[in-house]
Amino acid sequence: MWLPASPRGLLSYLVTLHVLRLGSADFRVVGPGHTLQVTVGQDVVLPCHLFPSMEARSLDIRWIRHQVSEIVHRYRNGEDLYGEQMEEYVGRTELVRDGLSSGRLDLRISGLRPSDDGQYVCTVRDGSSYGEATVDLEVSATGSVPQLSLEAYEDGGIRVVCRSAGWYPRPEVLWKDPDGEHLPSVSQRYSFDETGLFDTEDVIIVTDGNRDGKWSCVVRNSRLNQEQETSLHISAPFFHNARPWMVGVGVLLVLSVVLLGLGAYLWRRKVLQSRELEKRDAALAWRKFLLPHNPDVVTLDPNSAHPELVLSADGRSVRRGRARQDLPDTPERFDTWCCVLGQEGFREGRHCWGVEVKGEVGADFRVVGPGHTLQATVGQDVVLPCHLSPSVEARSLDIRWIRHSFSETVHRYQNGENLYGDQMEEYVGRTELVRDGLSSGRLNLRISALRPSDDGQYVCTVTDGASYGEAKLDLEVSATGSVPQLSLEGYEDGGIRVVCQSAGWYPLPEVLWKDPDGQHLPSVSQRHSSDERGLFDVKDVIIVTNGNRDGKWSCVVRSIRLNQEQETSLHISAPFFHNARPWMVGVGVLLVLSFVLLGLGAYLWRRKVLQSRELDVVTLDPNSAHSRTCPVSGWEKCEKGKSTAGPAQHP
């Protein structure tokens, strides 16, 4: 057998021989033909199979990453071999053996991690036969809702930081101004946590102080086409504080109205005291209202009683009979509803009377409800269950679903037909009696596209001649609203006025504020309103006054009924609290003015001293002095004397 003489030639020969051997495989390994997309934490099955289908339990099956030494899982001759497995896959892989007999070589990986992202190779060897197929796996994760932080005043604007965690792959961060235009960031930072997920920190300087507006940070996963967004409304006063000269002018104005502010404080204190008194009076009135009342004595009017109602001789009580009585047809008599009027009327006050129930009245069946409260979400469909006991044919009965009274008909079905004449307007086109179960006594009602107004009690009533039965059920309709939006509206009462707004809730949600320690804070005002669909919008305000601490302040909007909540947080650094205390800035301005005046005085005094030092020293001539002038410690100085004696006369 001929072999090349040179080492390089020998290597080429062996490679060529190996390729020729690979080409002699009796099978072909086939992958999925498309990229698999899975979320971090989930399990995934990487598909791979032999073509044509054949028994694979005796083959050497190896799942690897980029090279043969990076073994994800190995199976040979009916056994899993873990000796060469990569450490990060230990305990997380399993070859799906159910399909081995038909040539399926699927690999299950549990608890996906970011490091699992990438390409896998399914290799199969059977003696001299070899085949492989590649599988691309994209592992992704959508991170947390971004948290915004006001960190400092910088370059005439406000430094706003957007932070979000738990993304894979590395996300894209976009800033939008109040007009929806993209803004460039001044810095971007990314880091990994211990699980390999990306944390991002992005910074902008908001400098447009002439406009109120909503500034938004959007973090986007381009692979999943998913994003998380948080917005913050910053009002003009915060931009003014980014310009120190404007702060000085504002402080001088504030100092001029200190007395007015003091008067306002005293007036407000008086108003709060009066409100406390009003609340106390209201509480006392409510307690009085809750005191038990004795039932009123009502005399019933026999001319208005339904024919099935039997009145007592004194007209003080009534019961329902088993058959209709032959009574005069008076205009005021109830014929459809089993009702009776009282002879006396009430114009005002609160009145009550007792009702004694003594069991079934002549019904050959019993109407049964679900026995528990139904819960559904706004926009969904719901089926209200109701059935007859014992089960009887119901297609010939008068079935009526109502709200609180018979005049509030939700749906009516009688003798095989739906009757819409009495139906409440808000249910038109949204109700359907489920007819499939009528033959077995099921009277279920389907309501589509639930609205907040559908919340409450329903009554399923059935009439069959003189027989009547009913069952009540409660329906709780709920909706979880939007992620709260925070707004910095201005400085107030020595702190920062922060507003939290959220929309689309039902029923009315609870709003909680938490300080950096997680303690709940009282709000200073709460407002809520309903939109055209009946969903609640909430607006809650606090005054953040703790200026000695940096920290995260959170607004939590919670649906107690669903036990679900939405939360948004905002980090406010100390410099913003300092501007909330005008007296501190005022003291600073006064100190600056004092230093300026002291400096000016020192400058003038020093100038005077220097000028005096520049004066020439002159020695006076005593022979020329006036007779009343005498020397004082030499003739450098002279003063006017008190006598006429003097030195000798000279020509």
From TrEMBL:
Keywords: Disulfide bond, Immunoglobulin domain, Membrane, Signal, Transmembrane, Transmembrane helix. Residues 276-480 form the B30.2/SPRY domain. The keyword Transmembrane applies. It is found in: Membrane. Its main location: membrane. InterPro entries: B30.2/SPRY (IPR001870), B30.2/SPRY_sf (IPR043136), BTN3A2-like_Ig-C (IPR053896), Butyrophylin_SPRY (IPR003879), ConA-like_dom_sf (IPR013320), Ig-like_dom (IPR007110), Ig-like_dom_sf (IPR036179), Ig-like_fold (IPR013783). One of its GO terms (cellular component) is membrane. PANTHER family: BG-LIKE ANTIGEN 1-RELATED, BUTYROPHILIN. This is Butyrophilin subfamily 1 member A1. It comes from Grus japonensis.
